Every structure is written in C-alpha cells, then in structure tokens.
Amino acid sequence: MISLGGLGTQLGIKLFEATREKQIDLVARDALSARQIAAFSERIGSIGSAKELIADTEVYTFVMRAFDLEAQIFGKALVRKTLESDISESSALVNRLTDTNIKTMYKTLGFEPGGGGSANFADLDWQSDMVARFKERLVLNNAAEDNEGAGLALDFKAKASGINTWFDVLKDADLGKFMRRALSIPDAVVGVDVDRQAEIFAQKFDITKLKDPAEVDKLVSRFAAVYDVIEGISTQQNSAALTLMQNAVSAGQGGNISIITIDIPTIGKTGYNAYR
To answer: Entry's Gene3D superfamilies (predicted)?
Structure first.
C-alpha cells in the first residue's frame, strides 16, 4: 500500500485520491483479501439464511470487513440475532444497536425477518457492488491507520451523501470527530445531551449542504486546516509529499495531479484550548 504517514492532512487526502485506483488494485491482490473476495463470489449465491452466512467463516468475514465491522467479527451470536430481527419493529435488536454500520449491513444484505434467504445474493450486480464496497473500505481503513486526519476526512467524504440529520453524525464516532474539528466545536460537547448537541451543530452548519459536493470539499478543507493546527502537524512536510506524488505519477499510480494551497487564516491559541 502507498503510505500516507508523516503527511499533512490535506496532502494526505490528495495523495490518496491520486492513487486510489492503484491502492484498490493492491488490495485485490493481497493474498488474504483475494481469498475472501473469491470465497464471497463463489459461495454467496448458495447461502440461504443468516445462520448459514455466520457459519461460513470466509464469507462472513468478508461481509463484516466490507461494512467496517471487523472489530466485531467474533460477536457471531449478536450479529446473527441482529440479522434475524425484524427492522419494522421498534424494539428489534437492529434498531436498538447504536453502530450505524450494523443497520447499513442489515439493509444491504436484505434477509427476510427471521433471517430467511435474501433475494440479493443471486444478483451479480449486487455481488459486484459488495466487492467494490469491500475493497473501498479496506483502502480507507489503511489510510486511517497511516494518517488519522486524512482517514477521518476520507471516511467523511465516503459517507457525506448519506447524511440526512445531525443524529446520523452523532451516532458515528468518526463523523462526530470530523464535524467537531471542521466546525471548531470543543470535544467537551460529547458530554451534552444528544438533542442539545444536534442543536449546537445545526447552529454552525446547514446539514442539507452536504448534498452538494462543492460544500463537502469546503468542509474537508476547513477540517484539514484546523486538524493540523490542533495536532501540531507542520506544513514543512509539503516537499516530501510532492516527491511522493511525483513518484506515484512516474510509477503510473495516478493521473494528473494538481497541488492546491489552502489559505489558512491566522488562528489564535486561545480558541483551541478546549481541544487539548
């Protein structure tokens, strides 16, 4: 993989986006990932229930990794009960869990209430979308391991179009952190009642703007500037980043890359003490 370590947030994002296709290709060729992709493609069409999915370790692991739930892979009993619950019932387990990725997985897999077979599994287009989701999630997670700021921003960009309310943000720890930084809201706000948190965020930003890609990019630029100031990331890393990008282009890992300069206003230390 192409490392984003040691780079400023904005440059990390630019390098990732310039080499995205190459990184996805590298993920597909990784031995473990390739084996899980092959297992999913070969066997998902024959899986007829949530119970059968959980029993097939390779396919189950593929699915959990695709929905960024790798840390919960060993909770098979809970996952099965969740997939077998009926989302139309307010008390259903899938509606009581706070991790939004679980509900996304539930809806995407499309099991019948009780965990019966899903019509999606035999659909080749659906299978292709799942493989693409798996690869995308792995490269995003690798980016976050190398560079937290870039990882938070890239994860936000991937999820932005699906954000409809501030509660969608507040239920996701990474989205919450991104928005706090982007909107200069102290981390202490997490101790406030969730309804009040939503009001605070709403006063800072009109969430309907996230449907506009240009507004998403503006928010990412604001986040990158604030995040690097708070974390003490030096802008002197630019030359190293430029070298990496030039090498990536030379190696055929990216297309034409345009480096942009962000106009960062002077930021006084006093306003950021709450973050430390």
So the answer is: AGR C 984p-like (1.10.3700.10)
pTM equals: 0.75
Angle, helices 31-43/124-146, rounded to nearest 10 degrees: 160
Interhelix angle 31-43/20-29, nearest 10 degrees: 80
Instruction: Please write the tens of the pLDDT for every residue from 5-32.
Output: 677 888 888 888 888 888 888 888 888 8
For residue 180, give the 3-state DSSP assignment.
Answer: helix
The answer to whether 213 touches 254, Cβ cutoff 8 Å, is: no
Distance (Å, whole) CA 146 – CA 19: 15
Q: Where does residue 155 fall: left (phi above 0), alpha (psi -120 to 50 degrees), or beta otherwise?
A: alpha
Domain boundaries, the chain: 8-146
Q: How far apart are CA 76 and CA 227, in angstroms?
A: 37
- Determine the Cα–Cα distance for residues 199 and 196; give it in Å rounded to an integer: 5
